[in-house]
Write a structure and sequence with these properties.
The chain is mostly helical. It has 13 helices and 2 strands; from the N terminus they run αββαααααααααααα. It has a two-stranded antiparallel ribbon with strand order 1-2.
């Protein structure tokens, strides 16, 4: 018995804290959301006991479906823009010396030390009509009048890309850094041009990083309501805004819970597609 306890003690020490964390902060909140999504709204808000499918049916309201479609489109555009920006940047970093790599990656990570709200207010100061960007463009003569870069969909998109770009860069860097350079040398020796070598070797081998980064960008882009509130001027609605409004403004917790379940299902479907495409959960969890 003593030998068994010695073997189990380290195992329990490692497993119990993680299990307790997952139960308290994942399983129980999810179960709570699931249960109240089938309950009724109280007269003055909150939840009233009683089973109903009204909230689940209400999710498919055409107005809400329009918000879902708009959210998916904006999240997809955000992901595509992040890939377009992050891939060449990360590929450029991967070819540098160790010191330069460290400096560049520090420049990517350091902004995480500052509150995202503070950074978004800084973006507003840069992009507003009398901000630095418009002033510069007017001074050099590229525009004749200030551009409306904030408090619209453009501002919301800029904010989402700015906040989520590091989540694309990090998995891409991990994937490109592991790329076997001898394969590229072999392509060169066999007469393949750089573009062909990139399309046939580099891109396919780094696709797991692209997929991982896309998941890490796409899913949060659906729910970052504070970005659209600040830079979109509350004119752009995402699924996150819809859920927040149901809980705080309308005080319709059951409907808000049902919408949250819908968002969770979308997230699980995306993760499932990612795994079916050959992606590994280690790449998502290791960021």
């Amino acid at each position: 018995m003593k030998r068994k306890s010695k073997i189990n003690a380290p195992f329990l020490t490692m497993v119990l804290p993680v299990s307790a964390w997952m139960i308290l902060f994942v399983a129980i909140p999810f179960l709570y959301i699931f249960i109240i999504s089938f309950m009724k709204k109280g007269t003055y808000g909150g939840v009233k006991l009683g089973f109903t499918l009204e909230n689940i049916i209400g999710v498919f309201n055409p107005l809400y479906l329009k918000v879902f479609a708009s959210s998916l489109l904006m999240a997809a555009l955000t992901t595509i823009i992040c890939v377009i920006i992050a891939y060449p940047f990360t590929y450029f970093i991967a070819k540098k010396t160790t010191i330069k790599k460290t400096v560049f990656m520090a420049m990517v990570v350091i902004p995480f030390l500052v509150s995202s709200l503070i950074r978004l207010f800084s973006i507003i100061n840069l992009l507003r009509k009398d901000g630095i960007v418009n002033s510069f463009l007017l001074d050099v003569g590229l525009i004749s009048q200030p551009l409306q870069l904030v408090y619209n969909k453009t501002g919301a998109m800029i904010g989402l890309v700015y906040i989520l770009l590091p989540f694309m860069i990090l998995p891409l860097y991990s994937s490109i850094e592991k790329l076997d350079k001898s394969l590229l040398e072999a392509c060169s020796d066999l007469g393949a041009k750089p573009v062909k070598a990139f399309m046939r070797v580099t891109l396919p081998l780094t696709m797991p990083g692209v997929f991982a980064g896309s998941i890490l960008v796409f899913i949060p882009a659906l729910g970052l309501f504070f970005v659209t509130d600040l830079l979109g001027g509350s004119k752009t609605q995402l699924i996150g805004n819809l859920i927040r409004n149901q809980f705080i403004t309308a005080r319709n917790w059951p409907l808000g819970a049902a919408l949250s379940l819908f968002l969770i299902l979308i997230t699980l479907a995306l993760v499932w597609l990612y795994q079916k495409s050959g992606g590994s959960m280690d790449e998502l969890g290791g960021i």
